[in-house]
Design goal:
Mean pLDDT: 95
Structural class: alpha+beta
CATH topology of the largest domain: D-Maltodextrin-Binding Protein, domain 2
CATH class of the largest domain: Alpha Beta
Shape: globular
Strand content: 5-15%
CATH superfamily of the largest domain: Periplasmic binding protein-like II
Number of helices: 16
CATH architecture of the largest domain: 3-Layer(aba) Sandwich
Order of helices and strands: HEHEEEHHEHEHEHEHEHHHHEEEHHHHEE
Radius of gyration: 20 Å
Largest sheet: 3 strands, antiparallel
Strand order of the largest sheet: 1-9-2
Number of strands: 14
Helix content: 25-40%
Amino acid sequence: MLLDRVITGELDGAHMLAGQPLGATIGYGTKADIVTAFSMDLNGNAITVSNGVFEEMKAHMEMGEDGKPKHPISAAALKPVVERYRSEGKPFNMGMVFPVSTHNYELRYWLAAGGLRPGFYSPENTAGQIQADVLLSVTPPPQMPSTLEAGTILGYCVGEPWNQAAVFKGIGVPVITDHGIWKYNPEKVFGVTRKWAEENPNTHLAVVKALIRAGQWLDDPANREEAVKILSHSAYVGADEEVIANSMTGSFEYEKGDKRPAPEFNVFFKHYATYPYYSDAIWYLTQMRRWGQIGSAKSDDWYVETAKEVYRPDIYMQAAQALIDDGYAKKEDFPFGTDGFKAPTAEFIDGIEYDGRKPNEYLSKFPIGLKDEQTVAGNQVVGG
C-alpha cells in the first residue's frame, strides 16, 4: 500500500485517499505522522449497481419525460431491493476501496440518506457491518467490474474508469456520481511523513509547485485528450482510452447510450480544488466518528486541532506565491485571506448543512449514525 511505503521511507511521498493521513494520525489502522499540503482533485467517483439491481430500482425512481431516470438517484430507490433480499435471507453486498477511503464514506452517506444502514465499526469489530442493511467490504478497484459480474457484490463505489468499465462491459449501471452526493467533494491528497517534510522543506515546496502546475494543465479542456492517452498506458491506469475518455472529457454515461454532460466530473484546479482546507479534513473525521471508526465523542476543538496537524495550507500558499512570483499563476487562482474553512454548505444529496467549525452539531443532524456520547458495544449502539 502506498501509505505503508511512505511510512517506511521506500517512497518520499505519494497520492493517498483523503482519509489515510487522518486515519494514520489518529491511529486508526497504521499509526504514523502524515501531512498533506496538496489536495489532488474534486469529484471523480460514482456508485454502480448490477443490471438486475438497477432494473428493480427503476420501479422506485422518478423518471423524466424522456423515460430516463432523473438524477441524482436516491438510495431510497434501492431500499425496497435490499428489503427483498433480506426477506429471502440473502445478504446485499457492495464493494468500496478501503475503510478510510472517500468511496467508503460516499457510499455510506448515499445509503444512509436513502434510509439504509451501512453498518458501524467498533474497536473490537473493524468489518464495519454491525447493524448493517447493506454489507460493505473492500474490493480492489480494477477487480470491481469482474467481481460485480461474478455476483459476489451487487454494486460498488469507486473512481473512474471502473464505473464506465461496467457500462462498456454491459454488466452494470452507475446510479449517481459523487458530485451528486456532495458537490465539489475533495477526493485524494498528496501525503508525506512529517519528518520528511521537516527535513526536506525546499523539495516539498518544489513538489507542491509542480503538482499545482499539473492541476492547472489537467483542468484545461484542450489537454484532456492527451491526459487520457497518458493514463491509458499500462504503467498508469491501463484501461482503454475510450473508457477513460468517457468521464475525463466532459460527459458521463449511465445506462448504455444514456450519456449526459458532466463538465465537472473531474476538477483538478478550479474552485480552489488543490488547496488543503481544514474543513475538508474535518468532514472526513466526522464520517469516521459517525460510523464508529472514532469510537468516542470528541470536542469541536479536537476536530480542528487534528485537521491542523495533518493539513498544511501554509506550505501550499508558499508554493502558490512562488508560482505567482515566477509568472506561472495569478493571485486570483488561490484563496488568499482564507482561514482554511469553506463556507457552510447544504449541497449534499440529503440537504443537511455542513459547517466545518461545528462538527458535533453537524453529526447531531443525521438520523442514521453515531452522535453525542454514543458508542458501539457488541452489536448495539449505547449511550447519548
